């Protein structure tokens, strides 16, 4: 049952990542990796929310945790793409944007994780 949850969550996370990042890029343009940043930040929030629901509220069982946290969030978040796009910014001489991308993703990502965790505790 765990692999079915993992695969199902992974498929949905992949589709959600593609759709949401595409929407953000169509809205904001491609001069900065806005789509990846938006996916990573919302993914940080979601995994924080799911962590609180499973670890604090005990509202998610092992299959739901596998589906949501490992499958969906694992496929949805894009840290490897963050690194790749940051390297491209450095390659293109955009060192300030590269640094902004890393700092924003990590620092704001941690903050929205905490917000998600807090929101999960309130549920």
Descriptive labels:
globular; 123 residues; 5 helices
What does this structure look like?
By secondary structure, the protein is mainly alpha-helical. Helices cover 85% and strands 0% of the residues. It is built from five helices and no strands. The chain starts with a helix and ends with a helix.
- Main beta sheet strand tally, sense and closure: none
Number of strands: 0
The best one-word shape is globular
State the share of residues found in helices, binned by percent: over 70%
Average residue-wise pLDDT: 96
The rounded Rg comes to 15 Å
Q: What structural category characterises the helix and strand content?
A: mainly alpha
Low-confidence stretches: none
Number of helices: 5
Name the beta content range: under 5%
Query: Terminal Cα separation, in Å?
Result: 27 Å
Oligomer: single chain
Succession of helices and strands:
HHHHH
